[in-house]
Design a protein that fits this description.
- It is a single chain.
- The chain is an alpha/beta fold and 402 residues long.
- It is 35% helix and 25% strand.
- The chain is globular.
- The N and C termini lie far apart (68 Å).
Length: 402
């Protein structure tokens, strides 16, 4: 069968590089070349259709990546240089037989992705986080850091925002736990979502945001804009910016949080807290912005508190007790997510922050997911109520009675 590389070269030779070519004109050229090629070597209709799509993607979209991006069952794409492409589908990793025709073509795709997010990636700055137009998260690592690079990792997001109803249908959370969280969000509790990589923190944060009253002014702050806050008319979206080639122009998460405080927000949503911006976020939580939300990487709710303490110390030299008091007064609820051995994502624990006394932050578990059995490789379990919520003041003020 005629190789797509040969057809790609033929089309490239016939393209008029002195002017902009419209999609329709490019499509006509591709199928004319395919018709000529089929006269030299028989190509079935299915083969011509597949080659036509592949060639169009190579010139106008993200080359061989496009078919992975269009497959809704694929959740992660991993490109290890030109010859090895892996993808995750239904929780399992597969190796694809697709390849980039050259390193230059892969590097073109990398630059296209980076430019689409207003990011710069080159040998001098070989690591970058970016996003696709649909919000999918992209990490790029070039040579000489990646010895077998370029390395591209894409975490896909659903084309449609995931709702809490869908999470209940997927058994990621129970309706009882969901109802409690809906009331807590509406009543203005500050909620922090923790979990490991791939546990679904961003998806869950999006779902929680659906319970925010539509009359409020919301400001979202992210490294890369991934959040999809639905049906909030008074919404401001802020995105951090890396330094330019001259090393200037950087806008950090810390600066965005400080600026957001002057923009009259009702709530602030920080996509993910990773570093010294934790101190600015805590100050926002402690200055009247009730109902704010954020996420962070951790293995448990207590581990999340320890990591927040460390992150605050990265930005400001404060006594540990002062930091712990800030955390205890700023965060009301911790929601911990996890990915189980059957690859399902669950809310594992909902924890209330009671306060700070006797030199430590006091917690109590409200709900905990408990495994009951395993059937045909699927884990069966239930969310058990452990304690009633203690601090009900915000709920009562909002008109809720538990």
């Amino acid at each position: 069968m005629m190789r797509s590389e040969q057809l790609h070269t033929r089309i490239l030779d016939e393209l008029d590089m002195t002017r902009e070519i419209e999609d329709d004109e490019l499509t006509r050229l591709i199928y004319r070349v395919l018709k000529e090629a089929s006269e030299e070597e028989y190509l079935s209709l299915a083969e011509k259709t597949a080659l036509g799509r592949e060639l169009f993607n190579a010139f106008r979209k993200l080359d061989v990546l496009q078919e992975f991006l269009e497959d809704d069952r694929i959740t992660e794409i991993m490109i290890n240089g030109t010859q090895n492409i892996f993808y995750e589908r239904d929780g399992k990793i597969f190796q694809s037989d697709r390849r980039f025709i050259s390193r230059d073509k892969l590097e073109d795709v990398v630059q296209q992705i980076a430019a689409g997010s207003n990011r710069l990636v080159n040998e001098a700055s070989p690591i970058v986080d970016a996003r696709l137009t649909d919000g999918s998260r992209v990490n790029i690592v070039l040579e000489p850091i990646a010895l077998n690079g370029p390395i591209v990792t894409i975490r896909k997001f659903s084309k449609e925002a995931i709702t809490m109803r869908q999470l209940i249908a997927w058994n990621s959370i129970s309706s009882e736990v969901s109802e409690l969280l809906a009331k807590l969000v509406a009543a203005g509790y500050n909620i922090f979502i923790s979990g490991g990589t791939g546990s679904g923190k961003t998806t869950f944060l999006n779902a929680l945001s659906q319970f925010i009253p539509k009359t409020e002014r919301i400001i979202t702050i992210e490294d890369n804009a991934e959040l999809r806050i639905q049906d909030v008319p008074n919404l401001v979206r802020l995105e951090a910016r890396n330094a330019n080639v001259e090393g200037t122009g950087e806008v950090t998460i810390r600066e965005l949080i400080r600026s957001a405080l002057r923009m009259r927000p009702d709530r602030i949503i920080v996509g993910e807290v990773r570093s010294a911006e934790a101190i600015d976020m805590l100050q926002a939580l402690n200055t009247g912005h009730d109902g704010s939300l954020s996420t962070g990487h951790a293995n448990s709710p207590t581990d999340m508190l320890s990591r927040l303490e460390t992150m605050v110390l990265m930005g400001m030299d404060l006594p540990l007790s002062a930091i712990q008091r800030q955390i205890a007064s700023g965060i009301d609820i911790l929601v911990h997510l996890g990915r189980l051995r059957d690859k399902s994502r669950k809310v594992l624990e909902v924890t209330e922050v009671l306060g700070y006394w006797d030199g430590e932050i006091r917690l109590q578990t409200l709900y905990k997911y408990t495994e009951v059995q395993e059937e045909e490789g699927k884990i069966q379990g239930e969310w058990r109520r452990v304690q009633e919520i203690t601090h009900k003041e915000k709920l009562l003020a909002a008109g809720y009675h538990l």
